[in-house]
Amino acid sequence: MAFEVAHALRAPLDVMPVRKVGMPGQPELALGAIASGAVTIRQPLPYMSVEPGAQQFAELAALERRELERRELLYRAGRPPLELAGETAILVDDGLATGATMLAAVRAARKAGAAAVVAAAPVASREALALIEAECDETVVLMIPPSLYAVGEWYLDFAQIEDEEVCALLRHARGIPASGAGATVR
Asked: What is the DSSP string of 49-87?
């Protein structure tokens, strides 16, 4: 989605790596999220009677941080992140269920010096949108259903994008020819 938005706006494309910190046994239920720049978000879950303590959350976040760092190294391919100081950052996500990952991205963009932050997603829960609107300069959300259990329920195909496809899209956005077999851009 971010590739398509950047292409339509003729804007540079970069990644803002974030990782959900999921509930043990229910990894899609966000306890919080992490982002580049040592950003950590912990969301209370008022409807849960028991949730992990601070130590367990820190351990879960450390596991996700390793994956975040792996992806950032792979996706950037030795390039520095785009300079956000004084710029408008448009952050695009596939949807906002709890808002944790977008909130982490927003705070990481602010920490990097973005003058303005726009959050965009095709679908969001009312609660996530309220959380994000409180910290963004602007939000763009196409659909706010009465209830949103999972973002994937709003897609015909919600398959994970593999690392090679992300890398191919980033190379394409930078004007670098695709390399290797299977490096296609949809």
From this structure: S----HHHHHHHHHHHHHHHHHHHHHHHTTPPPPP-BTS
Domains and CATH numbers, the chain: 2-173 (3.40.50.2020)
The pLDDT, as a whole number, for residue 168 is: 96
Which distant-in-sequence residues (6+ apart) come within 8 Å of 34 by Cβ? 18, 19, 21, 40, 41, 61, 64, 65, 68, 104
Show Cβ contacts of residue 29 under 8 Å, excluding neighbours closer than 6 positions.
Answer: 22, 23, 45
133, two tokens: 């609107």
Residue with tokens 């949809």: 186
Closest by CA position to 11, among listed 91, 121, 99, 65: 91
Low-confidence stretches of the chain (pLDDT beneath 70): 45-51, 178-186
Q: 163-173 vs 2-9: helix axis angle to the nearest 10?
A: 10
Q: What angle do CA 91, 97, 101 make, to 5 degrees?
A: 45
Contacts of 170 (CB under 8 A, 6+ apart): 13, 14, 15, 75, 77
